Amino acid sequence: MILVTGGAGFIGSHVVDNLVDAGHEVRVLDSLLPAAHAVRPEYVNAQAEFVEADVGDLGAIATALQGVDAVCHQAAMVGLGLNMLDVADYVRHNDLATAVLLKHLAANRFRGRLVLASSMVVYGEGAYVCAEHGRVAPPPRDPASLAAARFTPRCPECDGQLSPIAVEEYSPLDPRNVYAATKVHQEHLCFAFSRETRVPVTALRYHNVYGPRMPRDTPYAGVAAIFASALAAGAPPRVFEDGQQLRDFVHVRDVARANAIALTCADPQVGAFNVASGRPRTVGEMADALADAAGQDAPRPLVTGEFRLGDVRHVFASAQRAQRELGFTATEDFHQGMAEFSRSPLRAV
């Protein structure tokens, strides 16, 4: 039996479908948090056992873990977490709930494997090199520079131009908003649990995930959903900064497959893995792909120059470790995936 926390969510539900299709017994634990769900979604796989409860509920998690030999921990409160009034909710849903899960796994001498949904946000700004000083860590972006449309960080040593490179799993962790801080803490808790119990833990650091069942107009909506929602309303997608921000867009089916591999491969793979396509694209390129898929009469993206302090300039992934050690390679075509996504109804709360 595999337990999938957050199995009614965007990514979790695809993980459940993948596992069920492969013949696994699956139990879903999901609190149906009002910020993400008004009701239980119709797409939740009927062949999976469903338990409506919070991971942080002591009694519920103890019951949900009965007979389980692998745990896929997807449940989390997501979003930038820019409002400090939300900090306690992020910590409670992400870190405290994870601690409760780990406590019960340890108390019941769990000897299976644990797969954690982590995120690219743990890296903060991506990786950069300076022609003179080599690899450097840029400081947080300055509001005055952003307001002057100087979007790319500069070298902290010489103020020279920096070139972005792919982040690898050994890249320093540098969370730059509340949500990112909680994802780093989740990883630290899970790896500490692994060291103490010898339970293998795999942390999958998702990059920009898109695809069917993505939520609309909620804190859980990613940039792809925001752009698709605008196009559906006949409005141009509003692209922040200059649209040249580099990201790695990975289809949700690829992400679900990465989880299934980590949960079921013959030898558990311990540590953190980027889950990404391995091919960076700009945010503007993604907006153009969605507009192209929407038809020739669709409004074209509007580059606004606006910015958010919680955003980073460039962050994209090396996918080599996941390919080499986990046996995962993303296979979904970007343009076909965006075309499919443009036709898929966005999930309303």
Query: What's the overall geometry?
Result: globular
Q: How many strand units?
A: 16
Question: Mean of residue pLDDT?
Answer: 91
**What's the N-to-C terminus distance?**
29 Å
**How does the helix and strand content classify structurally?**
alpha/beta
The stretches of 5 or more residues where confidence is low (pLDDT under 50) are none
Largest sheet report: 7 strands, parallel
Number of helix segments? 10
Kindly estimate the percentage of residues that lie in beta strands according to DSSP: 15-25%
Q: How helical, in percent, are the residues? A: 25-40%
Biggest sheet: strands side by side, in what order? 3-2-1-4-5-9-14
H and E order: EHEEHEHEEEHEHEEHEEEHEEHEHH
Rg, Cα atoms, Å: 20 Å
Give structural notes.
The chain has 349 residues and is an alpha/beta fold. It is built from ten helices and 16 strands. The chain has a seven-stranded parallel beta sheet, sandwiched between helices. Strands 7-6-8 form a three-stranded antiparallel beta sheet, with no helix packed on it. Helix 1 (10-21) links the parallel strand 1 (2-5) and strand 2 (26-30). Helix 6 runs parallel beside helix 8 (283-294). The longest helix has 21 residues, at 87-107. The two termini are 29 Å apart.
